């Protein structure tokens, strides 16, 4: 398959130009057209010669994603269902906040982590996304926002898939998003979420970036976490917490722990007390409590409002900072994997 236009860094574009008998600065012009002007074809790159545009069109794929559906929530959330060139489907979500527009991106087609409460794992893992397929989700989102002169102000890598199991593509995507000659999104406005791939957490720590890290923990002990998240059998809680301590001590950055509350499963007072005891050993920790989304194929129910606030109070009484995630897009099935699961079911029929 040809490379996608969004697969290449600025330096790779410059090198491609030199390798193909062009001046290196032409690579910078292509990069500007892609990320600053955000054109949709080589033909629009008017400061390139016709011959060069034809050469580029012959050697690169420009259309990376095809929009299958777009849903807009009454709260402003927009969810895309995109088709890839191999006919697989992925999801991307734009969330409106009072501080700007955040985009949640997907890094894999499906997921093999197997969390029992998540729609993303339905059907297993099909393949990793290429860097350009992740980048294109942000470009598509920004093109939509261009119509109202808004911009993508933050990114969360929390869509379908485990980003640290597609590590190199994810890191290349992050470098492209923060490039000063591209979209120039600040590193501190980007968060990567992992289910706890321990070796990759150590590797990410050594990247020495300002990009935020979030850990999906969802249970305060190995027994319960292994039931909810099979990845815990490979990377037990003690090993995960060691990696988290290393990250906070080396980076000096706050670490967010995501905790999806499931009624009668992990939301009792004793769970909150145990979680507080576990996280006291992690400096600069913060807990983001997430009322679980209903997924038709799963049996979990959401925690009651009173129990959510009680869970938060227990954590804060134990000096663990905790917030409750604001729910968005509930009327458009905005939870990860729900639209893709419906699309897969429809396609199979």
Automatic annotation (TrEMBL):
**Which EC main class describes this enzyme?**
transferase
UniProtKB keywords: Methyltransferase, Transferase
Encoding gene (name): rlmN
- UniProt EC number: 2.1.1.192
Protein name in the entry = 23S rRNA (Adenine(2503)-C(2))-methyltransferase RlmN
Q: Which organism is it from?
A: Paenibacillus mesotrionivorans
